[in-house]
Amino acid sequence: MLRVLLVERSALLRSALRRLLHEDADIAVVAEAPNAGDAAVALSRQEVDVVVMCATADREGMRTSEIAALRLAAGVGIVCLRHWTNSRDVDSSLTAGALGCVELDDASETDLAEAVRFAHRSDRYLSPGLSSGITVKESAWEAGYDRLTAREKEVLLRVAQSKSNREIARELNLSMNTVAVHRNRMMKKIGVRKATALAVFAAERGLLIRK
Fold first, then answer.
1. Domain residues of the chain, as ranges?
2. How far apart are the C-alpha atoms of 114 and 124, rounded to whole Å?
3. Which CATH superfamily does the domain covering 2-131 fall into?
4. Which has fewest Cβ within 10 Å: 55, 67, 80, 85?
């Protein structure tokens, strides 16, 4: 069993990532931390094989100095999950000690799980878009959100609040089938393959703190 420490400031995103990783029988999230400082404390108390560091809107949450410090202190594999805007960012993270770089826009449960396994073996892993040299556009999810209709945005907000299709249908006076259709259309527009990835998207957009 590969033991993972999740480092991400958003509790919502940590929950979504935890669910994705737990779909693999050989991976277990055994600790979580909102930042690198708390991660260092967690590593001193809990045996961990791989650290997954995620940065959404706050890139300061994954400075190369923090990657290097965790790598040096714990000697564990580190996987970085974030928006990558250029190859220099990827190179900096790898130089600092990360073994895996996964693009947040295009991450699937398979990509993240593979990165964790590679890091545990001390092997390097780059998600497909990064390994093929494609420059990731920082505005990709922004454009995806702009393509949503007003109704889809209402549904997405409730998805971010972990409400079921039944609850969403009741609140918006829709049928459950219509809610399911909205979910599927949102996934296509945003470019995600799993329903749970909508929670990741919602966390990136900061929907839970919108007025």
1. 2-131, 140-209
2. 10
3. Response regulator (3.40.50.2300)
4. 85
